[in-house]
Design a protein that fits this description.
single chain, nine-stranded mixed sheet, alpha/beta, globular, five-stranded parallel sheet
């Protein structure tokens, strides 16, 4: 029997979301959903990855003031590189009798938030029951486009191998174009009971994930284009404010080096892929928009990130390590809202590639 086949609609309600929300408000949080899984299995084995030294000028690491994610020491360690990191396996979890409601999964005294709740006292009423769901979305993927592209789109391939992938997320921006290009056809579900739900712990950088990233690029790029010096991706006003006051100077100088200047917001996915797929270097201010280039630039290419001192992060750096690519960075002076980067330092850093 095909468990993914649609059954006659069954509906029921639940006070579970409200009870769990109340426990959270009084500081009695619940364990993660994976702790109540009835089955778990390794999908991809853990493998080592070489953490490469980042390309940077002397003294750049010393300018880092605040790590946006993780500890300052961890960020500095990953930027200095020069060591091998053993990556965890990718694991699948099967759960029974799971309620998805108001952006939260509930099961047997445990939960997982996929997005911020929209209701203070959520009561699930007449929710449709389903046999099986395979979930591929994540909290970071709902918060940042970049994580959706470099994380959730890779997990989708695992979800489709088990059953019909589901997500609560509605596509915005380039997401619909990516879904078409990557042959992603999820079912969008906002509320449901699942007899069985499969989800994945898939934040590691093992060999299996590298192969899925290669497959994503192949689906987008197809035949390899000729190489060219690079692309500078404009950040624009999207996302959190991160303004480089002398960006016009940087853009002008890089254009003279043969870089293509591209505004992803004003460009189609085809235009983005056409520009980035053959780039030797992708450069730009730190942010999700750089993932357009990260996921399409060729093996052996480099990513050069310009960041304010209070926005140190190595999420993109670890992805380049996994894919056998270089990562470089320049730390500007100022804050997220307004900072300046030395164009000579940027050019000298590009020369290190």
């Amino acid at each position: 029997m095909d468990r993914t086949a649609a059954a006659a609609p069954r509906r029921r309600g639940s006070l579970r979301p409200a009870i769990h929300a109340l426990r959270g408000k009084i500081g009695r949080g619940l364990p993660d959903l994976t702790t109540v899984a009835v089955d778990r299995w390794i999908v991809e084995e853990g493998t080592p990855v070489e953490v490469r030294p980042a390309r940077c000028l002397p003294g750049q690491i010393d300018r880092i003031g605040v790590a946006a994610f993780g500890s300052h020491d961890d960020v500095v360690r990953d930027l200095r590189g020069g060591f091998e990191s053993r990556q965890s396996p990718t694991v699948a979890y099967r759960l029974r009798h799971v309620l998805l409601f108001d952006g939260v999964l509930h099961a047997d005294g445990a939960w997982r938030h996929l997005r911020p709740r929209g209701r203070h006292f959520p009561v699930a009423r007449a929710i449709e029951e389903r046999d099986l769901g395979t979930l591929y979305e994540s909290w970071p993927g709902n918060r940042w486009f970049g994580n959706w592209l470099i994380d959730d789109c890779l997990t989708y391939r695992l979800a489709e191998s088990v059953g019909r992938p589901i997500t609560t997320q509605m596509p915005v921006g380039h997401m619909r174009s990516y879904e078409r290009a990557l042959e992603m056809s999820p079912e969008r579900v906002q509320a449901a009971w699942f007899d069985d739900l499969v989800l994945f712990e898939d934040r590691t950088h093992n060999e299996g994930r590298r192969q899925r990233a290669d497959d994503l690029r192949h689906r987008l790029v197809g035949e390899e284009p000729p190489r060219h010096p690079g692309v500078y991706l404009l950040r624009g006003a999207s996302g959190a404010r991160r303004t480089m006051s002398n960006e016009h100077v940087v853009v002008d100088r890089l254009a003279r080096r043969g870089f293509r200047i591209l505004d992803p917001i004003a460009s189609s996915l085809d235009e983005i892929v056409q520009a980035c797929a053959g780039a030797k270097i992708i450069a730009g201010i730190e942010g999700s928009h750089l993932c357009h280039g990260l996921m399409t630039m060729p093996r052996g290419a480099g990513l050069c990130v310009i960041q304010p001192p209070d926005r140190a992060v190595t999420v993109l750096k670890l992805a380049t390590d996994r894919q056998g690519q270089d990562f470089g960075f320049v730390v500007g002076k100022g804050t997220n809202e307004a900072f300046i980067a030395d164009i000579d330092e940027i050019e000298r850093t590009l020369d290190l590639f």
